[in-house]
Amino acid sequence: xxxxxxxxxxxxxxxxxxxxxxxxxxxxxxxxxxxxxxxxxxxxxxxxxxxxxxxxxxxxxxxxxxxxxxxxxxxxxxxxxxxxxxxxxxxxxxxxxxxxxxxxxxxxxxxxxxxxxxxxxxxxxxxxxxxxxxxxxxxxxxxxxxxxxxxxxxxxxxxxxxxxxxxxxxxxxxxxxxxxxxxxxxxxxxxxx
Length: 193
Prior knowledge:
elongated, mainly beta, single chain
């Protein structure tokens, strides 16, 4: 009757803010250690009120930390801030030039999708997307263009919604060399021989 059969607890770490017990801690944790808001009988959003000094106020126990990334003052996020300087300056394109932008596909544009035979069969062949109104679109066919030392001859795919003098090039498809997009190129219709 005087024998203690309980298991001894794990050794305590004086430097740790967490409790070392097999049962866990069911009390209110310090503000900086709150992993979830739970209060019996309360919905999860309402349980947050039990952890605050007042509804919508600070957490009990003080501010749990510092904000590492501060929002910008105007609240506006830049959209295309990586355009080349000549495009940002509003460069006018002549009838032979096109701005090539990225076109993404569900099957093919992601690197690992091409490693699966079933999914890679669903990916399209390399092409250049042009607007239906583009003079180079014509009756399909092929177009030629060069980016640096790399020359391309690709079939045309009509893509409604593309603006004038904009061409789309699919990303990640096998058989297409890497091109840093967006880029302005001289594009011409390939004459069938």
